[in-house]
Sequence to fold (384 residues):
Amino acid sequence: MTRSSEPAEIKLVFDEPVLRKKSPRHIADFSPEDRRAFATELGLPAFRANQVENHYFTHFASEPQTWTDIPLEMRDKFAELLTPTLIELVRSVTCDNGMTRKDLWRLHDGVLVESVIMRYTDRTTVCISSQAGCGMNCPFCATGQAGLTRNLTAGEITAQIVAAARACALGELPGGSTRLSNIVFMGMGEPMANYVAVMRAVRNITDANPHGLGISARSITMSTVGLVNGIEKLTEEGLPLTLAVSLHTPDDELRNTLVPINSRWNVKEVLTAADAYAAKTGRRYSIEYALIRDINDQTWRADLLGRLLKNRNAHVNLIPLNPTPGSKWTASRPEAQTEFVRILESYAVPTTVRDTRGREIDGACGQLAGAEKQKTTPAMQIPK
Ligand code: SAH
Fold:
């Protein structure tokens, strides 16, 4: 039996800086077959794993007291062994009349991560973290400034999604009970640098009940800084996820600064990998572009980006920069943004500007986390 979160066969670029006490093992760390072996290893009959995964994925970690297919006196014990608590809510902050909620979670070793639930009229999306911190060091991103603390396990990633699914089912956001429909890997961390755990979490999302949540791969967005070996591996999976590439500028010179991993895989290499992904999956990919005033929002850069993307199966998602505390950079002027969009559209490149859902709780939550940890928790980027 292998644990899906170790050792990452594609441990990209950065290793965990310190040896930590391992996170508790959880059925969500394993494939459905390995869950049975996990139960056996714990001295339980294998079928107990199937009962518990059903409770976890179909009823969203409902209270063990309600697990009527398991003898009363064993319910708590089984829950503790197979579905130990991996994330504990520290606090939630809401905005947009309650339709956006950011949850701050503490993991078993005290590490803090965030997820955000966003309810729209036609869908409900959760934005989740794949790592505590991030090793990619992009200077405009708050998460990058703190560095990488550690990878999350598949169970810890999945737990954020299950918690969101549960909140939706329980009608915790205004509008009553609903179904979690979309998952975006746009919280803290670089998902392609924690590949094995992230893919186990993806399978937990896409596998049908009772093995998983039964949410389609098309409803998942995987956002990457552009780790080409990760994109290539993802292409081999043959899953129609939506791939989002954080390009932020079309030229290598500036990208070496904005996205430092560009010195390892440049713009051309990243786009070639994304093209191969689109060809294999038939899915249009998304180019993420944070518009930063006077840094990457010049008309000539819009032209260069238009020329680069015009014959590609890609669309551009412009993100008004969300300034991080202490940063000298800010969002583009409205005129510059409008002109940027116009130029891209003149190349027939589909372009959207991300809405600013949850902007005001970025700061609020940072303050909350700061109070917890004496340091600012990164602002998460809220997808459209
Ligand atoms: N590591 C992944 C996912 C993390 S964040 C990635 O880089 O894609 C999701 C998106 O938010 C990325 O495109 C990231 O570049 C962007 N982002 C980070 N900080 C930002 C900020 N301050 N303002 C606007 N977008 C930001």
Remarks:
- Residues 1-18, 363-384 have pLDDT under 50 and may be disordered.
